[in-house]
Amino acid sequence: MTTLYGDIVLQETLDTTEFLRGKLLKVTRHLRMLNKDSEYSGKLKLYQSIPGVGLIMAVTLLTELEEIRRFKKLDQLCSYVGLVPRTDSSGEKDKTGPITPRSNKPLRSCIVESAWIASRTDPSLILSFNQLCRRMKPTEAIIRIAKKLLNRIRYVINNETAYVQAVV
After folding, report:
1. 3-state secondary structure the chain
2. pLDDT, tens digit, 9 for 90 and up, residues 23-48
3. Which in 6, 62, 113, 139 has the greatest CB count within 10 A?
4. Which pLDDT belongs to residue 88?
C-alpha cells in the first residue's frame, strides 16, 4: 500500500540521487581532463604508476601534499600524514600507542586505502604484509605498509621516474 507522503519522499530521494550522480559524472570528467591535458598530467601519471594509486588518489596526493620536496625526511612526511605513533613522555616514562589523531585525515585515509590495494598487487608489499601479519593484527600491519607506500610515493616524485615493481 502506498501513500501520498511515501510517494513524495520516494520521488525526492530519486531526484536527489539523480542530481548527485550527475555531479559525480561532471567531477569525474573534469578529473579525466586534468589527467590528459594539463600542467599536472606528468605528475599524475607518475603517481598512477604506483600500485594502489588511481586517478582520484593521485589528485588527492597532488592537492594535499602540494610540493612533496618540502619534506626533507620520510619521518616528516609520515608525521604530516599522521602515520606516526602516539607518544606520551613524562619524566622517565615513555609510552607509545596507536597512530596519532593529529593528521591530514583525507590524505591518511586515502594512503591507508591504497596500501590495502597495494598489499594485494605489489609482490614485495605482499611479502612484507604477510610477514607483519604473523606478529600483529592486519589493521596494524597495514599502517606499516602505508608507510612503505608513502616512501615509494616520495621516491617516485623526488626522482621523477615511474614506479617499477620489484620481483621477490
Report:
1. CCCHHHHHHHHHHHHHHHHHHHHHHHHHHHHHHHHHCCCCHHHHHHHHCCCCCCHHHHHHHHHHHCCHHHCCCHHHHHHHHCCCEEEEEECCEEEEEEECCCCCHHHHHHHHHHHHHHHHHCHHHHHHHHHHHCCCCHHHHHHHHHHHHHHHHHHHHHHCCCCCCCCC
2. 999 999 999 998 888 888 888 999 99
3. 62
4. 73
**Cβ proximity of 149 and 57 under 8 Å:** no
Is residue 145 a contact partner of residue 119, using CB atoms and an 8 Å limit?
Answer: yes
Q: Is 12 exposed, middle or buried (0-12, 13-18, 19+ CB in 10 A)?
A: exposed
Q: In whole angstroms, give the CA distance from residue 39 to residue 66.
A: 14
Of 138, 118, 122, the closest CA to residue 130 belongs to 138
Percent of the chain topping pLDDT 70: 96
Grade residue 168 by pLDDT with cuts at 50, 70 and 90. low
Q: Is the C-alpha dihedral spanning 82, 88, 91, 93 positive or negative?
A: negative
